[in-house]
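hey all, quick one before standup. I had two proteins in the batch that finished overnight and I want to keep them in one place so we stop losing track of which output belongs to which input. First protein below, input sequence then C-alpha cells straight from the run.
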Amino acid sequence: MRGALVITGTRIPIVRILFLIKEGYTLEQVREEYPQISLVTLQNVMEELASKINTLEKNDNPFLQA
C-alpha cells in the first residue's frame, strides 16, 4: 500500500501544500510554514504538477475541460 506523495527529503504531503495554496497562501507563505523546503523546491513541485495536469486527457476527469 502506498502513502501520500511527499516532497522529496521530507514527510510533507504535496496535498498539504496544495491545500495551503487553495486557501490563498503564496509560495513564500508556504515557505514560511515549512522553512525546510526551499522556494525553488516549491516552484519545481508546482511546475511538475502543472505538467502532469497538462498531460491528462479531457475524458479522464469530469472536472477538467480542454
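OK second protein, same deal, sequence then C-alpha cells:
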Amino acid sequence: MKWPVLRKPAPVNDDIDRRDGRKFIVSDFSAIEARVIAHLVGEAWRTEVFRNNGDIYCASASAMFRVPVEKHGVNGHLRQKGKIAELALGYGGSVGALKAMGALDMGLKEEELQPLVSAWRQSNPNIVAFWWDVDDAVKTAIRMRTATETHGIRFAYQSAMLFIQLPSGRWLAYVKPKIGENEFGGESVTYEGVGATKKWERIESYGPKFVENIVQAISRDILCYAMKTLSHCFICGHIHDELIIEASRVWICRQSVNRWGRYRHGFREPCCGPTGTRWNGTGWIKLYNLRPYPFTDRAHWHQV
C-alpha cells in the first residue's frame, strides 16, 4: 500500500478528512530535541528538569540569571528570556538567531541580546563543548580519511562520503565533503547537496549545524520506534514529532494514548536514544491531544 505524502505549509487549516465513522487523535512529544541533546552531552541540570517534569524555559532562565524563576510567579518575567534563548541558541545561534526568532518583537532590547547569548552558553557548557567536539571529529575524519568518535556518535570518511552513525545504527551521509575556508577566514566543512536555492550546490556547515542534524535525526529514530509500538493503529500521517492516528472508537484512541506512554520505556532501547540514558521517568514524554477536543472529525495542528 502506498501512503500519500502530506505536506505542512504554514499556516495549515483543516484539510485532512477522516473516513466515515472514524476520528482523529493527534499526539506529539514535548521538547524532544532539548531532551535528546541534554542526554547526549550529560547536561545534568537539564536532565533533572525533564526527570521532574519541570518547565525548561523557567529552568533555563533560572540557570542563566541565577535566581528562581516560576511561571506566573517569582521572577516570572524572566521566563520569556529563557524561552527565546532555548529556541534560538541550541545549535550555535547568536544575536542574529535571537533577532530571527523575534526577540526584539517580544520586548527584548538590542543591548540585552549578547549578554543573553553569553548567559545561555555559560549555563550549558556541555552543549557548547559538544558543538566543537563534533566539529573536530568531522574535520579529522575528512582530513585524515579515517573514523572518529565523540559522545557515542561515530564519524567516518569513505568513498568520498562523510558518514555519521547514530545510536540506532542508522547513517547520515554527506556527499563529497571538503575542508574549506568560510567568509570569516576560518576553517569550514562543505559538501554537495540541495541548497537554499533548491539547486545542487556546495553547502557550508560546521559543528553546531552537524549537531542539529544529529539531534533531529535521533529524534526521528525515536518517533519511528514509537510508531512501531502503535503498529496496531492506523497512522495516517506524521509531522516532525507528531503523529495523526485514525480510530473507529473512543476506546481505541484511549488505548493508543496508553501505548504512547510506552515510549518512555522505549527510550531506553539502544535502537533509539543514547545508550545508558534513563528515558522512563515520570512525565518524560508529555502527550498533547487535539484542542479543544481530544477527538475530532478533522485534523488540526497546534504549537506548544
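Flagging for whoever picks this up: Confidence is low (pLDDT under 50) at residues 1-13, 263-272, 275-304. DSSP finds ten helices and nine strands in the chain.
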